[in-house]
Amino acid sequence: MLTDTVTHQPFLFPAGDAQRQRALVRPLTLADTLRPERAHHVAIVQKPYLDLILSGEKTIEARLSKCRLPPFGCVRVSDIVALKQSSGPFRAVVRVGHIETFELNSSEDVQRLRDGHNSKICGTDAFWASKRSAKYATLMWIDRVVPTDHGPELVRTRGSRQAWFVLKNPLKNTPSSPIARIGDANAPDETPRKRGLIRARRA
Questions:
Q1: What whole-number distance in Å separates Cα of residue 114 and Cα of residue 1?
Q2: pTM to 2 decimals?
Q3: pLDDT tens by residue, 42-55
Q4: Which of 4, 61, 76, 107 is the most buried (most CB within 10 A)?
């Protein structure tokens, strides 16, 4: 069974609060700007999932892998992620509102993740079938979405399948940029610690 090693605080948006979550999927005009310690990332996302994020139906971005690859251990609450469509343009910038990380021991553990969270992950049968052998999982709750067609220039090796990038330089924050519009409302004042490692153990 999946065993939690930390005491969880309530999520920013309780399960079932779909109306409130969908209300956030719009350009924001908040005047708050980024704190310098917040990390910035780029995620490559397939078009169907991007459409679901922009519509407000998909509110958890899940990354599962066989190795400790980003974003596992690299993302914190309030980090900013630019979403780029696979073989396409940038589509949105989002802010991470809550994180859970897992170590998985079996395909049964992967199935438990699916059973518990797929209503917000919106993963297809093909997605979950491809993740049966995953050993590490990162679930990121999205609490701000700003549509945009702008993003950083990425240098990718031809044929590379890398789908997550931790940026060395922050995304530019100008008054008209999606970074300024994503705002800082409801974000904690301090840099939050990682949500804690949730280890998957056999029952």
A1: 13
A2: 0.71
A3: 999 999 999 999 99
A4: 61
